Amino acid sequence: MNIHKSIVMKIGTLIFNTIVVLSFCFLEEIYAARGPCTAPGLLNCTCADGGTIIICSEKGFTEIPSPLPAITVTLQFDTNKVSRIENGAFSNYPNMRKIDIGINQISWIDSGAFSGLQSLTTLEMHNNNLTTVSANMFDRVTLLNSLLLNKNPLLCCTMVDFFEWIPNQRSLRTLFGTCHDYNTQTDINSFDVSKCPVDGQWGSWSTGPCSVTCGQGFINRNRSCDSPSPFNNGTDCIGSSTDSLSCTLAGCPVDGQWGSWSTGPCSVTCGQGLINRNRTCDSPPASNNGTACIGSSTESLSCTLAGCPVDGQWGSWSIGPCSVTCGQGLINRNRTCDSPPASNNGTECIGSSTDSLSCTLAGCPVDGQWGSWSTGHCSVTCGHGIRYRNRNCDSPPASNNGTDCIGCSIDSLSCTLAGCPKSYGKYGREAGSWIRKTRKWKRITSRYY
User: Fold this and answer.
1) Buried-exposed string 303-336: b where 16+ CB fall within 10 A, e elsewhere
2) Total-model pTM
């Protein structure tokens, strides 16, 4: 059995060391681009990853700085001198996923210290002076994946609520710690809390009658050690199970008689109410086991004053139709001061009885309009030709069942450019030159132009 425990503890230590090495390797990459923190209280610390990782290791801190930056995701606060984690030390940090407060001097953690950390997955508290850990430090159910409590002098029999809390943490995969109960060391995952000693606690006192029927006497009372009873070699209740108290009874019986009624004011300042009146059994009072006065010491009578003021209250809005049949318009609405109406000098309703609200119906019809003509080039490079032009129905286009543009989108116009150059035929310029010189042959050579 001891060999098995030794193997389990060695495997646990190996896993823990592996996690630590991998964590340092991972953090080394992340912390490559790091620098001094600028937040007050953290000037001696290093920040990385845009300020979401705070590294305050080995800085001599005696308490957790407050407040931390709201964007904090990882807090590396190991190897300091913190002795207590107070309630609220880690409140309002919804993004915080990892807290390392290992290798400190922590011996006590307040209730609620880690509540509200809805994103927390890793909490390292190893190498501290914790003797107990309570479930009330956390929320009822968390996303906690890794909880490291190893190297703490835990007395697990004082942690019954913690062991009841553990099964509800469905995300928890890694739990390290060692219980030091019974002068032996037991892995926290193997500890059987049902075998812990339960010390006895006293139940309520049970009180008897006075020992006499009049005058001075004693009342005896007793109690049992059953809330709870001692269990598993727990200690018995401390103190006595019996006790005596003095008691004083009356002397000779005197029957009581009622005094006069004392009447108070009406219970309201307006409308229907009650007048309470009372009397005292003091003429004379009952004493020494005499009988008390017969009847009630109080009585109520109805009283009616003027009607109470009733302040007016608006009734529901009555809403009319939209002022237009399409597009943007207004809806007029009105209400009446009748729920209830003002009465008996009550104030009238405050505000207006009418109001207007904007209303939006389907878009109004928009008829299409032609845009500008876009004109092309003339169909020829000289002389007479045709020039085509076109236009689009987009200024504006027809919408919401409006009519399309009327007319054609394409048109043609005649165009006239410079005259085309003359052709001289097969005899070319020489013939032309010759003609200019010899006008006599114009009729003969004109057929070559």
Assistant:
1) eeeeeeebbbeebeeeeeebeeeeeebeeeeebe
2) 0.46
